[in-house]
Amino acid sequence: MNTAPGPKNREPDTIEQPAPTVWPMVAALGVTMMFGGLITHAIVSAVGLLLSLVAAVGWWKEVLPQARVEVVHLPPPGERAGPVVPVPATVEHLTIGEAGHRVRVPVEVQPYSAGIIGGLVGGVAMAVVALLYGILAQGSLWYPINLLAGLAIPGMARLSGEELRAFSLSNLIIATLAHGVISLLTGLLYAVILPMLPRRHMLWGGVVAPLLWTGLIWAVLGVVNPVLNARIDWPWFIASQIAFGLVAGWVISRAVPVATMQTWPLAARAGVEATGMDRQRERDR
Question: What is residue 114's three-state secondary structure?
Fold first, then answer.
């Protein structure tokens, strides 16, 4: 049985701490070998189980019937740390990016509602340019609509010019749904990406981005559906994409931005309710 000095016969200026023991490490090794045997060999698991049982018994004897401790002598009173004296003071918070404080970009983002509205309004502007192309270049309002339906119905691109200029209710429904979904998703993408780009969002969203995805669409269609690629009037297509980018970018940039969580105090980000936290957040705003 392990014995240790009790509180009454303990030397002055000493403290008791749990004595070091190897049994926790042995137990960890045994458990690891038990699971390691599942992918190696049953003997490894058997050895691990044996080690775990031995470690459990040894660890148990370390604390029962009496905990095994060791006495640690304290340094002289003159070398000890002084008592902690509370000092009433307020905590000074660093502003974003100050003194090497970690900052995430962007500090503010556009709300998702602005992306939805911008995508829908931009989709209308793009549709106006596309319909204008159909009237001026093809003499039919339905030509660009039927051509857009060719994205979902590949055989549409092989129809004659007269068939593409004719009205089709199914093509109108398919083209409207496809155009609406793509415009909505692109608007949401604009709301997420534009705050992370440098200034002049209208240039990035209205010119640069439409030119980039137009080049991507042209390259992909040239491989996937070359017949449809040949039917598209690319100058008019670029004009419609720029119309979408300018209108959607303008709507999104005019929305009131929302501050990201990095501007909140640590307690607010951790979900902790603390006194004065609301006042601190209001002051940061």
Answer: helix
Query: Within 13 Å, how many C-alpha atoms sit on residue 235's CB side?
Result: 2
Q: What is the pLDDT of residues 10-47, one digit of tens each?
A: 667 788 888 888 999 999 999 999 999 888 889 999 99
> What spatial distance separates the first Cα and last Cα of the chain, rounded to whole Å?
65
Q: What is the pTM of this model?
A: 0.53
Give residues with Cβ within 8 angstroms of 95, minimum separation 6: 101
- Burial class, 275, CB count within 10 angstroms (exposed 0-12 / middle 13-18 / buried 19+): exposed
Helix (H, G, I), strand (E, B) or coil at 17: strand
Instruction: Give pLDDT tens digits for 159-174.
Output: 787 888 888 888 889 8
Q: Alpha carbon of 44 to those of 23, 26, 58, 184: distances in Å?
A: 19, 15, 21, 58
What is the CATH number that goes with domain 14-74?
Answer: 1.10.287
Is 127 buried (19+), middle (13-18) or exposed (0-12) by CB count in 10 A? buried
Let me know the angle formed at the C-alpha of 132 by 129 and 135, rounded to the nearest 5 degrees. Answer: 155
Contacts by 232-238 with C-beta closer than 8 Å and gap 24+?
Answer: 232/147, 233/133, 233/137, 236/129, 236/130, 236/133, 236/137, 238/210, 238/211, 238/214
State yes or no: cis peptide before 65, omega within 30 of 0: yes
44 contacts 36 by C-beta, under 8 angstroms: yes
The Cα–Cα gap between 225 and 158 comes to 10
Q: Where in the chain is the domain with CATH 1.10.287?
A: 14-74
